[in-house]
Amino acid sequence: MIPYGRHSINDDDVNAVVDVLKNEFLTQGSQVPLFEQNLCEYTGARYAVACNSGTSGLHMACLAAGVGIGDKVWTSPNSFVASANCARYCGAEVDFVDIDPVTRNLSLSELQQKLSQAEENGKLPKAIVVVHFAGSSCDMKAISELTSPYGITLIEDAAHGLGGKDRYGNPIGSAVYSDFVVLSFHPVKSLTTAEGGAVLTNREANANSLRRYASHGISRDNSHFPNEEKASGWYYAQHDLGFNYRLSDIHAALGNSQIKRLNEFVAARLSLARRYESALSALPLKRPQLDIHSAWHLYVIELENRDRRVVFDALRARGVGVNVHYIPIYHHPYYQALGFKRHCYPACEKYYQNAITLPLFPELSADMQDRVISTLHEVLK
Ligand SMILES: *Cc1c(COP(=O)(O)O)cnc(C)c1O
User: Whose CA is nearest to atom 7 of ligand 1?
Assistant: First the structure.
């Protein structure tokens, strides 16, 4: 079965990990700060705080944004559940902004409408988690223009986006128009550390707060220590209820090796997307917008007048490991139990009915891709 996504590991990656295993520190050594520095250099963000998953990164970003009980957090329904769960971890209520059928990202006009309604009802969100679906950037400038009058915190869920750029040429992750950007390094993502994530920000206070949440709420900054402990070698102080969300040096070493290959990975993904774009043009389906600045995490087609289930099963039966991204978050039993109604998000419903994710990853060869293409032609004939 050709998978929909897959990591690429070479000898340099293997050696980088083995080197750490032979060194003094398996965790809390020099690889994590180096990885954070590499992420800052790549994205242009001032601060990066590595953590052990994209999900913990989202949780920390919500905590650092001050999200708590009684608050509201909005996100896109066309995403992985973690984009919404992070708010629930903090005791906040979640709501969804319907998607734009063209970009499949949170819709700007829906956001604008929902904001003015929320202003009237006094139910404005504390934070919005903006997802760059499939690696294609939302217009963060336009979003921040809508939200900044209300002082809403913007968290970018850029789990799909590392290696991509926005329409103004800013690397995804630069956090130019947002407060926090969260990355994931799960094996299907732009680069991998096996499990891992990071939060990027341009504000020092945010970075300090993220660092504390990643490590038990403990600070080693002695300027706040009681006087009698200032000079002691043993003292540390827990300020918040934090977690152990740290990334290990083994994982970070893999990330340091992988980030050198990131531009190649993204270029390979774009060139595969271009091949799909021309090879599928005669078929009864909607192709994704060919955003040349996208990180191309996913290639999702929307069928036209076909039963998605039938096409999906036929492709799988022929060895094409298609997938569906995403089951709308509010479809999940956990969110259904919170009372979400499907008819409130018509664009997301329509998209979900017809969406199929085709294989796309750097090591997908032209031959393998041709097999996917010819199988799809055969199935849709
Ligand atoms: C992968 C992913 C996450 C979660 O990242 P993990 O590193 O797996 O915890 C969050 N949001 C989106 C959109 C993702 O694709």
Answer: 54
For residue 244, how far is its CA from the centre of ligand 1 (angstroms)?
A: 18
Q: Are residues 141 and 34 in the same domain?
A: yes
Give ligand 1 pocket residues (Cβ under 6 A).
53-55, 79-80, 82-83, 131, 157, 159-160, 184, 186, 197
Identify the pLDDT of residue 183: 98
CA-wise closest residue to 193 among 254, 143, 265:
254
Q: How far apart are CA 293 and CA 298, in angstroms?
A: 13
Residue 260: per-residue pLDDT: 98
Rounded distance from Cα 341 to ligand 1 centre (Å): 24
Write the CATH number for 268.
3.90.1150.10
Q: How far is the CA of 122 from the centre of ligand 1 (A)?
A: 31
CATH number, domain at 92? 3.40.640.10
Half-sphere exposure (CA, 13 Å, Cβ side) for 178? 32
How far apart are alpha carbons 356 and 340 in whole angstroms? 24
Report how many domains make up the chain: 2
Indicate which atom in ligand 1 lies nearest the CA of residue 189. Answer: 1
Contact 193, 251 (CB under 8 A): yes
Domain that holds residue 321: 262-380
User: Does the pTM exceed 0.85?
Assistant: yes
pLDDT the model gives residue 217: 95
Position 234 scores a pLDDT of: 85
Cβ distance 365 to 8 under 8 Å? no
The pick from 106, 130, 184 for probing ligand 1's pocket by mutation, whose C-beta has the most ligand atoms within 8 angstroms, reads 184
C-alpha of residue 82 to centroid of ligand 1, in Å: 6
Mark the ranges of the chain whose per-residue pLDDT is less than 70: none
> How do strand 180-184 and strand 218-219 relate by DSSP bridges?
unpaired
- Considering the domain architecture, whether residues 47 and 144 belong to the same structural domain is answered as yes
